[in-house]
Write a structure and sequence with these properties.
By secondary structure, this protein is of the alpha+beta class. The strands form 3 sheets. The chain has a 4-stranded mixed β-sheet with strand order 3-7-6-5. Strands 2-4-8 form a 3-stranded antiparallel β-sheet. A two-stranded antiparallel sheet has the order 1-9. Helix 3 packs antiparallel against helix 5. The longest helix has 10 residues. It is globular, with a radius of gyration of 16 Å.
């Protein structure tokens, strides 16, 4: 029987202390970030930045690192404590009746929170949409500052993984993404299944 995870479940490359998220940038940001292990001044802290635990979703979004301004894909290893802080404050980008008490409550939380979350179709090795979802986490204000200044353990340029994966479509080349554990309260907040 083919693999079929819950429709809303965070799957990621993670250890006991860290989780790897992906972002794509132009070389002027990606090269110094990977070399120095932190984002350079060119990284915009005053706007929302989206982090993605799914490698294939990032490949879809960046067209295998070929989209203008997204030519370099970074694997950003961050503290799980920081990622959990973000999830605890995340508000879904769209109103969802099974999660929110009312549209008014959702709008209020959306305005106040420094973290957004949205579920998009996960992608397979050919980048076709799958039935289950991958999460994106949007950080702004305090959340961007914490991400850039406190949570990062290591930044790796993983762009070179894109070409063999695009050519061969071999799942064995992918990072090992497994269910990410979260509390029942966080799962309820995100409309997700716990690991």
């Amino acid at each position: 029987m083919p693999f079929q995870p819950p429709k809303h479940q965070i799957r990621a490359l993670h250890t006991a202390d860290t989780i790897t998220v992906y972002q794509a940038f132009p070389p002027r940001i990606a090269e110094p970030a990977a070399a120095e292990g932190r984002f350079p001044e060119a990284f915009k802290r005053d706007r929302m930045t989206w982090i993605k635990p799914s490698f294939l979703w990032m490949m879809h979004r960046s067209d295998w690192g070929r989209s203008p301004g997204q030519e370099r894909v970074l694997g950003v290893e961050i503290d799980r404590e920081g990622f959990d802080w973000a999830l605890e404050r995340a508000v879904l980008s769209a109103y969802t009746g099974r999660v929110h008490a009312s549209q008014a409550q959702w709008k209020r939380e959306l305005r106040q929170s420094p973290v957004r979350a949205q579920w998009d179709p996960e992608r397979g090795p050919n980048l076709g949409a799958l039935e289950w979802r991958a999460i994106q986490v949007g950080l702004r204000g305090e959340a961007v500052r914490r991400y850039a200044d406190e949570w990062i353990r290591r930044i790796t340029d993983v762009t070179e993984l894109a070409d063999p994966m695009r050519r061969e479509r071999d799942p064995a080349l992918l990072p090992a993404e497994t269910p990410y554990p979260m509390s029942a309260a966080v799962a309820a907040r995100l409309g997700a299944a716990t690991a």
